Amino acid sequence: MGTRGRLRVYLGAAPGVGKTYAMLGEGHRRAQRGTDVVVGYVETHGRRHTAEMVDGLEVVPRLTLHYRGTTFTEMDVDAVLARRPRVALVDELAHTNVPGSRHGKRWQDIEELLAAGIDVITTVNIQHLESVNDVVEKITGVPQRETVPDAVVRAADQIELEDMTAEALQRRLAHGNVYAPEKIDAALSNYFRAGNLNALRELALLWTADRVDDALQQYREQHAITGTWEARERVVVALTGGPEGETLVRRAARIAARSSGGDLLAVHVARSDGLSGASQGALAAQRLLVESLGGTYHQVLGDDVPEALLAFARAENATQLVLGDSRRHTLARLLSPGTATHTVRASGDIDVHIVTHSHTGKGLSLPHGRGSLSTRRRIRGFALAVLLPPLLAVALTPFRGHVNLVSDVLLFLLATVVVSLVGGLAPALIAAVAGSALLNYFFTPPLHTLTISETNNALALLVFVLVAALVSSTVDAAARRTRQAARAAAESRTLANLAGSVLGGPDALTEMLQRVRETFALTSVTLLERGDDGWTPVASAGSAVSRPSEADTEVPAGDRLVLALRGRLLEAEDQRLVGAFAAQAAVVLDHLRLSRAAAEAAPLAEANKVRTALLAAVGHDFRTPLAAAKAAVSTLLSLDIHLSGDDRHELLQAADTSLDRLAALVDNLLDMSRLQVGAMSIDLQPTAVDEVVARALDDLGPDGRRIVIDTGDDVPLVQADPGLLERVLANLGANALRYSPAATPPHLTCSRLGDRVEVRVIDRGPGIPPDDWDRIFLPFQRLGDTDNTTGIGLGLALSRGLTEAMGGSLDPEETPGGGLTMVVSLPATTEVAPAAPGRRERDEATR
Q: Which CATH class is domain 7-222?
């Protein structure tokens, strides 16, 4: 396979900003450098300056197509491929090709050129991107019917924004550089209002900024850059689940808002060192607040809170970090400076904001529930083990004559217990040995020697050492158990957070891997599946790896699945937790595959249900007209019965009527079957409703003349299949006639509502309760029928299926005063043929 071509996109906020002009200018620059450049398709929209830019460039002749009596031209893909230039200029990426072209959309034509190794330069407006299509319609009031998937544009090797202020674009328009003079006033008062243009411009800038941000993050990952690049403000706010959380979130949101649309990220560190006082209810409320302010919520696991916060901030390229002032009292702050102080010291190039709040200094005065022994606590313990016994010996020396040895031993034992509480077993053993030596040297006769003259004194010192060792061991074991319990609690909270944050649907697996990546501060997480041909990435968060050997850590997720982690080596405890995530990822993958299988099996189950109902219906409804026809024909063939001419005519008429009913039943069944398998042939075209109504009433025979018609004078054409619409209206008319009293005949009305046309078939019959409205559209239902001679209950089901196949809808309504109204809604169109190429932007401007 050859090298794929490169795609360059000129993105504009609105028509007329100069995308095509810039594309042609780039074509001239490349041609002057000796590059082989051709024009595959350019639409000048009658703009003189744009047309002049085409001069001097080779233009590939267009392909001529005939459609419904009109001639159109499209890009000749085959001609461009045969010419095989180095660069092709192809205008209007979102353009819809005329039926009969190789592809339905121009971006598909461009994909074929890129696959052939041809570089393509193209243009597109922001309003034609699918992700913002609905937003643009709300802003401008103009629906954008031609769209291009965002992924096509995001995959471009280069995107260049053609930007222009609203005032400058309006001046261009007023000078006749965009539209013909007769179109200018309408354009300025509609699509090209200043508010519309500013909104479209902002959309284009934000979309392009996101695309640039993605490229920046990818570059940082590829080059292992961990330092902060202040290309875009990102504000991270640290949440503890405390009462100050709301204050911090709102303050961080204001900081982000002042940073020209900076990002807001909230993060909670689930500690494994026993600080488990976070309220999950408070965290859930703060998460909702963050998301309501346009931010995102994240949770990470870390033994060292400052390190975990900074690791997350650097991984997200954050520029500012918002922390709350400590809730602890002064005494607790003297024992430990706190998270904020350590974060500020290690923050480097990340700005740290310490936010005061109403709960500052109102927490517990001593650390509460801190059972694990961090490195900092052990260092303090060793320091106390070295300093406390000598200081105690110096303090007790003046009182040797007043305090006996037992009291001295108890005081040194108390000091050893204090050391064990602070630093654990090892510092306590040092304190016990040092205390024993000091007691022996300074307080046990003979003084100032290590000799013990009395047995009781020796026993007292031995008991002192044993008690100190036992107490220290007990304290250390309790600390380890507390650490393990806290670790388990932190893991449980993290698992609960992951389980709660993963959404259902096709993106559930990717969402889970993204949460794992954030939780453990990894560069990428990839779920790999081993097949007969090797490893295949199933889903990934970050840059995917193709085999386990490329990862820093690999965690089995099943017999054929492996979770590949990149970014850092995980500790054994973290790997165990990731193993739980891996098992859950395997379950999610199985669930997604089972869901797809179930979705594929659902039509089969529905078809089987319909088949069963069909057999039950055929047993009666097909047999009735068939039996009547059979009886009439048998009578006519009988030689034993002498029939008059009138009798023979009546029997033939009965047989003909029964066979017509039978043929109609078969047609309905075949059409219902075609609809269910998607094989119904639909020919959509601009259709006059009044003409179809007339034909539908003719199909009803003399009874059709009873229906009162009001189709209106200003009803536009609808996009429909005339034949299928005729069947729908005939079915609805027949139902209305069947249930309407003789004195109040049915009514049929037409009206326009927005961009749709509604046809109402109104009867004054007994009506149907709203709870049963859905049932009347099920096949083989005859809700309310009492004669069992009116068909097999396919009329309404078939009518709704045909209407929806044409892009419309069929819904019931209550008739005021009693009865039922069936509403057929179809898309309106004012065109009798597809718009000519280049007409799209002019239509947008004049709507």
A: alpha beta
Structure tokens at 289: 């607040």
Helices (H), 643-793: 645-677, 689-699, 722-739
Distances from the Cα of 258 to the Cα of 235, 293, 576, angstroms: 11, 14, 42
d(Cα 186, Cα 626) in Å, to the nearest integer?
65
**Which of the listed CATH numbers 1.10.3720.10, 3.20.110.10, 1.10.287.130, 3.40.980.10 matches domain 607-677?**
1.10.287.130
Residue 792 has pLDDT above 90, yes or no: no
Closest CA to 128 of 145, 111, 106, 141: 145
Q: Give, rounded to a whole angstrom, the gap between the first and last alpha carbons of the chain.
A: 47
14 phi, psi to nearest 5 deg: -160, 165
How crowded is residue 806: how many other Cβ atoms within 10 Å of its Cβ?
22
pLDDT tens for 698-744 read 878 888 888 888 877 778 889 888 888 888 888 888 888 888 888 88
- Give residue 711's identity as a one-letter amino acid code: T
Query: What single letter denotes the amino acid at residue 214?
Result: D
Instruction: Tell me whether the CATH fold assigned to 7-222 matches the one assigned to 607-677.
Output: no
Most confidently modeled of 37-41, 47-51, 370-374, 636-640?
37-41
Interatomic CA distance for residues 461 and 432, integer angstroms: 10
Alpha helices in 117-244 (DSSP H): 133-140, 150-154, 166-174, 181-189, 194-222
Which amino acid does the sequence have at 699? D
H, E, C per residue of 77-92: HHHHHHHCCCEEEECC
Question: Are the C-beta atoms of 124 and 92 separated by less than 8 Å?
Answer: yes
The closest alpha carbon to 271, from 574, 581, 422, 486, belongs to: 486
Q: What is the pLDDT of residue 648?
A: 79
Any idea where the domains of the chain sit in the sequence? 7-222, 234-355, 375-481, 503-593, 607-677, 685-829
Residue 470, amino acid: L
Q: What is the fold of 503-593? A: Beta-Lactamase (3.30.450)
- Res 440: pLDDT: 75
The answer, yes or no, to whether residue 402 has pLDDT greater than 60, is: yes
User: CATH assignment of 234-355, given 3.40.190.10, 2.60.40.10, 3.40.640.10, 3.40.50.620?
Assistant: 3.40.50.620
Confidence at 461, pLDDT banded by 50, 70, 90: low
Instruction: List all residues 6 or more positions away from 695 whose beta carbon is below 8 Å from its beta carbon.
Output: 726
CATH among 2.60.40.1120, 3.30.565.10, 3.40.1550.10, 2.30.30.240 for 685-829? 3.30.565.10
pTM given for the model: 0.37
d(CA 728, CA 706): 18
Return the higher-pLDDT residue of 219 and 727: 727
pLDDT of the residue at 535 = 86
Q: Which of 266, 240, 435 is nearest to 340 (CA)?
A: 240
